[in-house]
Design a protein that fits this description.
Largest sheet: none
Strand content: under 5%
Order of helices and strands: HHHHH
Length: 123
């Protein structure tokens, strides 16, 4: 199962209520508000435009819309991760830079500890 299929499966299984339509801002419908807020965050649409978009829509039609919004947001991240993971030279350089930085910090810390304990400084 691909990650995209996994997202689709997870969204289809999201808990929703038994009301036949979708509405925004009803405190008696937390599941509805949660999914609509998630959709709004992913799409950067206004509450008004989402209300207009989902009016008369049921969960069976909205959940694929939400899945597409999630995939649209995550797909560029997945592609970039794949590019980074495939670039072994870049990964080695990042790891080496990190190791050098960590060693510098560790040496400084060890020097402070040695000094505090009265040991001679390492040369």
């Amino acid at each position: 199962m691909t990650r995209l299929m996994l997202f689709e499966k997870k969204i289809k299984r999201c808990k929703t209520d038994a009301f036949p339509s979708i509405e925004y801002g009803n405190s008696d419908r937390p599941e509805c508000n949660n999914l609509l807020n998630l959709y709004q965050s992913l799409t950067n649409k206004t509450e008004e435009s989402i209300i207009e978009e989902v009016t008369g829509m049921n969960w069976g039609k909205f959940k694929p819309l939400l899945t597409d919004a999630i995939i649209d947001r995550i797909d560029p991240i997945n592609k970039r991760c794949k590019e980074i993971l495939e670039d072994r030279d870049y990964l080695k350089a990042v790891l080496n830079d990190g190791a050098e930085s960590a060693n510098e910090i560790a040496e400084s810390t060890l020097d402070s500890v040695r000094l505090a304990m009265g040991f001679c400084r390492k040369k």
